[in-house]
Amino acid sequence: MDNTDVYAFSSPENTDNVVLIANWGPFQEPIQGPNFYPWAEDAEYLINIDNNGDAVADLIYRWRFTTEDLRGTDTFLYNNGPVTSLDDENLLYRQYFTLDVSTDGGRRTGPRSPKARPRRRTRAWPAWVRPRSTWTTCVRPPRPRSTAGA
């Protein structure tokens, strides 16, 4: 799967860490809803990192997704009421991901690789639609508080 953007920068909290942000679904806006493009189950989403400038990936992050679709035939919407948590019964379309990390250029990836971190299934954040659907701190990360005047 081709991504559209990758950003890398030093973490503001710990400059020894690097923060990676990637985008695979560009220009997706809340007004384009009510449903948005899901993560594809038949694709791999990769970030390849070359640490020494030889044009060969030394570190590979690979995400794979699965879907739990609870909508049945009654609705095409992702939710049937306000969503207040990732486990909310109103959230009818749920996606999960596993993240594999290869530290040997992709020769070995996943749980069988002694250099790979173990995988675990993690809930993917649903698309933020609007306050009446998914406006909670459980679904949309909270905005940082201003320290001005403190």
UniProtKB/TrEMBL annotation:
* Chain segments carrying region Disordered: 103-123
Extent of Basic residues compositional bias: 114-123
One matching Pfam family? DUF4331
Which InterPro entries does the entry link to? Answer: DUF4331 (IPR025566)
Descriptive protein name? DUF4331 family protein
Organism of provenance: Blastococcus brunescens
Q: What is the lineage of its organism?
A: Bacteria, Bacillati, Actinomycetota, Actinomycetes, Geodermatophilales
